Queue: 2 jobs
Job 1
Amino acid sequence: MPIDIDIAKVARLARIALGEEELERYGAQLTAILEAAEQVQALPTEGVEPTSHPLPSTNAFRPDVVTASLPRVEILAAAPETEDGYFKVPRILEAP
Amino acid sequence: MSGWEAVVGIETHVELQTASKMFCGCPVVFGAEPNTTTCPVCLGLPGAMPVPNEEAIEGILRIGTALDCEIAEHSVFHRKNYFYPDLPKNYQISQYDVPICHDGSVEIDVDGDASVIGITRVHMEEDTGKSIHVGEGGRIHGAEHSLVDFNRSGVPLVEIVSEPDLRSPEQAREYGAELQRIVRALGVSDVRLEEGSMRFDANISVRRAGDVEYGTRTEVKNVNSLRSLQRAIAHEIERQIGVLESGEPVVQETRHWSEDLGATTLMRSKEESEDYRYFLEPDLVPMRVDASWQARVREALPELPAARRARYKGLGVDRRTAAVLAAAPDIADLFDAAVSAGADVRLSGIWVTGELVAYLRAGDRALDETAVEPDHLAELSAMVTGGRLSATAAKEVLGGVLDGDGSPGEVAAARDLLQITDAGAIESAVAAVIGEHADAFAKLREGDEKVLGFLVGQVMRATGGKADPRQVSELLRSKAGG
């Protein structure tokens, strides 16, 4: 099956700005990756359990116990902008 | 809306009340100072690794089992990728094609009209942070900037998705109310809509009555009370019918319910927003809930509201009282224990759903902050049925018991509320009143029942309200000759 990938859409969904030349280069690379996946997908897998994780382990849980949180001054120190103990972010949506 | 039928499905989010968050040990608290309960995991800092909270998994299994779901023996977490300031990792850990619970149902009853609402799935995820929009009246559109608090980020969140089985705003409201009652009975969340620990999104479409195909749906968000749920759906149904009747198509979009406007407004169109690029969460191994775990969860379930209502109906409890009890498990437990201790069903029902509920509400208290015990209700009940306490005085005594003033017997004695049960004392009070009001008594003898109330009142006054009015009126009647 021929691989048809909308690289501009993939880039938009990931919020990565790509130029014309990059779109072409990465498009070709992604296509090659998907072609490799196609080959694997063509293998007969009847009777083979799907693998959802490479580790042969399940139920790696922790008990419901509270541990220390970080001091606020410390976490806010990493923020570009703060206000009254909050992270301050630019306008999210323009007025409709 | 004659000629039209509404089709509604509801997504309900429930925050679990665990001690710690879903994937880290930060505490789950409501109303803490902003950004004081966060760590590298719930802030999405690079390299931080999530570890699921076992208690949260227990919680969702309880919900799924109570909603009669099938429990998946094998299920996995996915990453739901989208960009929003309150989501620091740029993905939410959620479940996608293999949710932990699926294919359940819940029965609802609207004015005696019962229907079964399908539950598509119940899946585990994490809550996001909270943003406050500054400027433009707090609306996101055109706000100057926004402030983000990550305390809520990573709180265990259960999403319950219904089938599009609801057909009216009233059904939708009752569905939401019944879910709230069920989750409250399970004790896994405080389900406070006003604090956001339970939230609804409604998917709504309309079609011509008799059509099989669904119409185009819209999703309404920001519904944070049962009343708003009903109003928002009613408004959206009417809006869509209006659009279709004017010959326009309904556009698939997300709308925002405004309680102030009493209307839904456009939030965003759906065209580009639905591609979440789900993929398996590589940081988490699969979950395995084997048959013995499933059985343990099933056995540990408390009595659910529907079962409670049915049992109370069998006990002869009236419908309204049964409904109030089924919605308040702690009060219902007190009622059950009181009845087992010998309390009268009808009297206890009136007291716990009347005086007790009013008392708790007035003082914004929880039941366990009061001094009342099941044995108190049994004692109070025996005093009333034995004629030692009037029904009115019983309510006052209950107030004293709730305040911690002692047992009903002690409170009644201390407040001098006990009735005179000594037949001789009542007899002489009646005789005195007959002597004083001979005219009235003569009328009673002639069969004029209208004066009976007056005479009873006089005896009650003479005894300081402590005679049993029923006993007094019987005595007056028999003296009047029948």
Job 2
Amino acid sequence: MESVGMDWTAIQTVVWTLIKIMALVMPLMLGVAYLTYAERKIIGWMQVRIGPNRVGFLGLLQPIADGLKLLMKEIIIPAGANRGLFILGPILVIAPALAAWAVIPFTDTLVLANINAGLLYVMAITSMGVYGVIIAGWASNSKYAFLGAMRSAAQIVSYEIAMGFALVGVLMAAQSLNLIDIVQGQSGGLHQWYIWPLFPLFVVYLIAGVAEINRAPFDVAEGESEIVAGFHVEYSGMAFAVFFLAEYANMILVATLTSLLFLGGWQSPVPFLPDSIVWLFFKIGFVLFLFLWFRATFPRYRYDQIMRLGWKVFIPITIAWIVVVGGMMQTPYGYLFH
Amino acid sequence: MTYTTAIFYFFAAILVFAGLRVITARNPVHAALFLVLAFFTAAGLWILLEAEFLAITLVLVYVGAVMVLFLFVVMMLDINLDKLREGFWDYLPIAGFVSVLLMIEMALILGSRHFGLDVMATPEAHPADYSNTKELGRLLYTDYIYAFELAAVILLVAIVAAIALTLRRRKDSKYINPAEQVKVKRNDRLRIIKMKATQKPGAGEGGA
């Protein structure tokens, strides 16, 4: 009888976890949909256009209409494509983009899985995303797709190193890999946030983050003016939409991580206002706005410049700053670096 | 069978399958992808052993970086499988010798006489707040500091050697100096000349 009871609690746990996952993924997908809307509106305003304004009030139903359109379209599998891997590509892109959210905390208690090595987990899972891009590019059996995949692989692997080193600085300051501990290490107001002692690492993380998610000005993987659309040129309908969803989910993920690691997460910037999840959303929104602003402002980097920036500028900066942080921690001024 | 045991057998089955496919898959890209699956599953098994730091690092380093470059190379190379398989029977004796050696080594280490439950007690499960990242770091930087530093120096030598081997300056290709590019001012490239108008105003080509 006891084993039956055990099974029942196990089933309960599984169902309850699934409900929690849905409660996380549903708002995320809604956020993705309206991020595309925000992107088109904001870039429109920056270029003195109106942006989408036909579907629904102020064009607010535009993302829904786009999603429906993509759902109705046929998924074409090219004749020479490697069928299994062609389907696997988009799945391998979206899976890490969603799985990484498992350890992201929204407040002190609101988190799906509060694990010790949270930061490491996020780094490991996001590093898996590149496989989807490579497999999609290779399985398409098209030279443009393949070139895009090769570019993307080199770029993501290069910038991951700089990104990882920037995170090493954060874990040195927080002395923890747990994301909740990292945020709690920044309590006490605006001046306690890690952005100040780790400012060079913050800048490197933000820019490397843009490169990791293949956004302008680092979007050579797509490079529509050079290689038409890069790795997803052969994809259509929902298969294409999955790449799109993953890119925007990753964008929100990087913005969230920047807010948690450098901008104090849900901590209020001033002591007299309470900490709340609203602060976190506000900070995420701000970083996302920066991403959109970058896209409207900067022209695409040349490929050799991307490689130079990653290897010869960012990695030395991060290593130097880690040494500075480590050295300063041994001096009486160590409290400045927590 | 407990939940953990079920998960172990699930992961182990995938690992064995992926390992077999690495050596039997005809397409080298498929073989590399199965190796990725094998690494990822092995990381899952390590998590079951409470070695979460090693498991996540395995995914981060081997799956996230090493295998990407591996795949990169395999995709770029034109590999002729039939030619690779030609020497199968010639190499079989050496391969057999190596695998027998591996089996003997594994048997020596894993023999139940030395590592059985009666020799070594079952490791106790640690509480949830136990951080093996911290423990590993403490051991590496105290008890094993010399070995650790030695490994680091060997790696550094390997890096320097790899760079020195591939570094060559080609005289016939043009290099860009980014510092000079950034420093360029308008006046270095552009000259504004004052010149007299060749036509009187208003007397343009046919009138605009």
